[in-house]
């Protein structure tokens, strides 16, 4: 294990003040991230969100992103309620039929795109309920064509307009509550959906923010070795430390002196593992939060699938050696008893696995322990690596930037203009176009896997 005194002066300037918690000396916090976590403890997540948004807006919204496809989630502060007479309660996350019809866990689906069919998810934009009843819009499928993305986000803006114009039920200060303006037949209680709406129940939307300002998250798919570029974009203050730790772990175990060019994918997997561990260990969120909320760059790809599919035979053998000899634990200054999420989290498998057991499961199970949390944490490691040739995400890994300056940005549904009609902050469509256009320009692809950007699409 490296001591901090052994780090170079340049590295120390980028490295953060370390935690004094025993057994976690190597997974402390930078001044920037540490301040965010301290604010989280004292003034709550919404205030922290505003801090992150301010930082995000001071950077380029068109920073480079590595992907062949992307999708968007737009999380608002407005709330959808389940109402029966004078009784009302917020909807749970992803309210909707779980089994029949399949892929119907939404409140309303747009008409643009294909409906779910034969076990395949539909491609239309979805209006969903998030945790605590917050309204969210999501493009459920991954798109390569800007016109497809634009069409769906424009339809989401149209849904917002329909809600804003719906019949007002009540007002409270600046907030108003309106009838849910869309058909809810598929949300009614049935034998297959016993938790559905009763015949005397309805939905209402409480509009606390008439601009529908949303926190926008973008999910991306890219080649495994490109994780380092992704990391440098989103966590620039930590990239040198994370990549350095991963390389040290690899070099210490590589007694056979296998050339670096033959260990590229293993090095990238170690970078991902180190990033997840460090960020989870630094988080000061308590056990009342989902496991995924403790992460910043969340892998949507099953770690075991990455190990099994993308690593060579030599890389797999070396990874097993690293786990057996405790290379990751030693370099990061944790023990076999240290959990990935020290405080625990919301979910039936809380407090979750130890770091050591998680690492063992990556090479010994078809689905590692972090990718098996299920429930509302199932987004972590949800997908296996696509191995079928010709797919838009063949042999790619998928990530969701949950807390980086490159993606954590608040945008109103429609462009914000000053008194002269000049746009001062682009809305949902403008943000999506900015990041999509940058991705298209910075990473040209061939062979049918490229992003397609046409500024002339309606």
Structure in words:
The chain is an alpha+beta fold. It folds into 2 domains: 4-43 and 219-401, no CATH class; 49-208 and 412-458, no CATH class. 32% of the residues lie in helices and 16% in strands. Strands 1, 2, 3, 4, 5, 6, 7, 8, 9, 10, 11 and 12 form a 12-stranded antiparallel sheet that branches. Strands 13-14 form a two-stranded antiparallel sheet. The longest helix has 19 residues, at 146-164. It starts with 8 loop residues before the first helix and ends in a 16-residue tail after the last helix. Residues 1-25 and 29-67 have low confidence and may be disordered.
Q: What is this entry, summarized?
A:
The strands form two sheets. Strands 1, 2, 3, 4, 5, 6, 7, 8, 9, 10, 11 and 12 form a twelve-stranded antiparallel sheet that branches. A two-stranded antiparallel ribbon has the order 13-14.
Oligomer description: single chain
Mean pLDDT: 83
User: How far is it from the N-terminal to the C-terminal residue, by CA?
Assistant: 57 Å
Number of strands: 14
Structural class: alpha+beta
State the helicity in percent bands: 25-40%
Alpha carbon gyration radius: 23 Å
Q: So what's the overall shape?
A: globular
- Number of discrete domains: 2
């Amino acid at each position: 294990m490296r001591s901090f005194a052994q780090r170079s002066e340049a590295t120390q300037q980028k490295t953060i003040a370390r935690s004094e918690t025993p057994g976690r000396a190597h997974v402390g916090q930078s001044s920037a991230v540490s301040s965010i976590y301290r604010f989280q403890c004292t003034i709550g997540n919404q205030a922290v969100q505003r801090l992150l948004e301010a930082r995000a807006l001071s950077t380029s919204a068109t920073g480079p992103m590595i992907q062949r496809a992307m999708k968007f989630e737009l999380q608002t502060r407005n709330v959808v309620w389940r109402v029966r007479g004078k009784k009302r309660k917020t909807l749970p996350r992803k309210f909707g039929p779980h089994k029949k019809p399949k892929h119907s866990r939404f409140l309303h689906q747009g008409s643009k795109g294909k409906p779910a069919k034969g076990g395949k998810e539909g491609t239309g934009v979805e209006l969903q309920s998030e945790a605590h009843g917050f309204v969210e819009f999501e493009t459920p499928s991954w798109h390569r064509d800007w016109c497809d993305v634009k069409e769906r986000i424009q339809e989401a803006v149209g849904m917002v307009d329909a809600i804003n114009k719906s019949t007002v039920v009540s007002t409270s200060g600046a907030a108003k509550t309106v009838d849910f303006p869309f058909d809810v037949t598929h949300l009614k209680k049935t034998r297959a959906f016993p938790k559905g709406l009763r015949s005397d129940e309805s939905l209402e939307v409480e509009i606390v923010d008439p601009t529908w300002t949303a926190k926008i998250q973008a999910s991306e798919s890219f080649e495994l070795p490109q994780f380092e570029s992704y990391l440098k974009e989103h966590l620039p203050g930590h990239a040198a430390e994370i990549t350095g730790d991963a390389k040290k772990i690899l070099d210490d175990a590589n007694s056979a002196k296998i050339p670096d060019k033959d260990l590229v994918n293993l090095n990238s997997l170690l970078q991902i593992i180190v990033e997840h561990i460090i960020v989870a260990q630094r988080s000061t969120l308590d056990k009342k939060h989902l496991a995924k909320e403790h992460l910043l760059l969340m892998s949507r790809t099953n770690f075991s699938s990455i190990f099994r599919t993308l690593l060579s035979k030599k890389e797999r053998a070396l990874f097993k050696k690293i786990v057996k000899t405790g290379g990751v634990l030693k370099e990061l200054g944790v023990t076999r008893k240290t959990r990935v999420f020290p405080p625990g989290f919301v979910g039936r498998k809380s407090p979750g696995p130890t770091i050591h057991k998680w690492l063992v499961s990556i090479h010994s199970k078809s689905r590692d322990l972090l990718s098996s949390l299920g429930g509302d944490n199932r987004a972590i490691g949800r997908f296996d690596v696509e191995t079928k040739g010709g797919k838009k995400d063949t042999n790619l890994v998928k990530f969701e930037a949950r807390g980086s300056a490159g993606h954590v940005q608040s945008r109103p549904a429609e462009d914000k203009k000053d008194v002269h009609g000049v746009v001062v902050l682009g809305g949902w469509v403008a943000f999506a176009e900015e990041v999509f256009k940058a991705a298209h320009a910075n990473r040209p692809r061939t062979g049918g896997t490229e992003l397609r950007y046409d500024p002339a699409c309606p």
